[in-house]
UniProtKB/TrEMBL annotation:
Protein name per the record: Guanylate kinase
Gene transcribed to yield this protein: gmk
Subcellular location(s) per record: Cytoplasm
Pfam families documented for this protein: Guanylate_kin
Protein family: Belongs to the guanylate kinase family.
Gene Ontology cellular-component annotations: cytosol
Organism of derivation: Novosphingobium sediminis
Function of the protein: Essential for recycling GMP and indirectly, cGMP.
Length: 217
């Protein structure tokens, strides 16, 4: 009897992963996120809901779902978030529906969320989560990056530095820590992490059948 040939496409079937990128502001997270999304069409941004006002250049539904506090509270009440948190006096949350269905279909998601959200996602979906934390190369470089165009007062800069220090203190809640000294090198390292995590045996749900076929006498 002719045995069916194992199909590589079946073998490639796998569960999606949740790629979480966190960092203090000034460590390059926004740039690295954009590079990842531009360079990897298989990766989709998990678009959060937030109550903070829209910044110039942001697009509703693309950068965030901009909602009122009332709408946000209703979503919390209706358990529509996978996680949510107060960050810098505004509310932020990850809508549940898109991510849960996507993961089953093999969709990978990028999460630009803080340490509180990371902890909650890890508690709920530990095996789907990959946690990456970016650090600035030095405190002087961080201060330089947070000083902006030199128009902010010393108090504003000091407050930003304090906030950055508080965020950095959560570095040990992550699987990978990458120091962002050079943006291209940092991006290359983050890509290596993503590629390796995609190959994890537990994620390649199509492998069992594929290997069974390979081993059939
Ligand atoms: P920003 O207002 O500058 O876009 O984001 C402020 C902080 O909120 C960043 O550290 C960002 O990672 C975090 N953040 C954005 N979306 C979410 C979310 O859905 N959940 C949580 N926990 N944090 C978020």
């Amino acid at each position: 009897m002719v045995q069916p040939t194992p199909q590589m496409s079946d073998a490639l079937h796998r569960r999606g992963l949740m790629f979480i990128l966190s960092s203090p502001s000034g460590a390059g997270k926004t740039t690295i996120s954009r590079m990842l999304l531009d360079g990897d069409p298989a990766l989709r941004l998990s678009v959060s809901a937030t109550t903070r006002p829209m910044r110039p250049g942001e697009v509703d539904g693309k950068d965030y779902h901009f909602v009122t506090q009332e709408q946000f509270d209703r979503m919390v009440e209706a358990e529509q978030f996978l996680e949510w948190a107060h960050v810098f006096s505004h509310s932020y949350g990850t809508p549940k529906a898109q991510v849960k269905a996507g993961l089953r279909e093999g969709q990978d998601f990028l999460f630009d969320i803080d340490w509180q959200g990371t902890q909650q996602l890890y508690q709920k979906l530990e095996t789907d989560v990959v946690r990456v934390f970016l650090l600035p190369p030095s405190i002087d470089e961080l201060r330089r990056r947070l000083t902006g165009r030199g128009t902010d007062s010393a108090e504003v800069i000091a407050a930003r530095m304090e906030r950055a220090r508080a965020e950095i203190s959560h570095w040990d809640g992550y699987d990978y820590v990458v120091v962002n000294d050079d943006i291209d090198e940092c991006f290359a390292k983050v890509c290596e992490i993503l590629h390796a995590e995609r190959m994890k045996r537990a994620r390649q749900t199509g492998l069992i059948g594929f290997v069974r076929e390979l081993m059939r006498p």
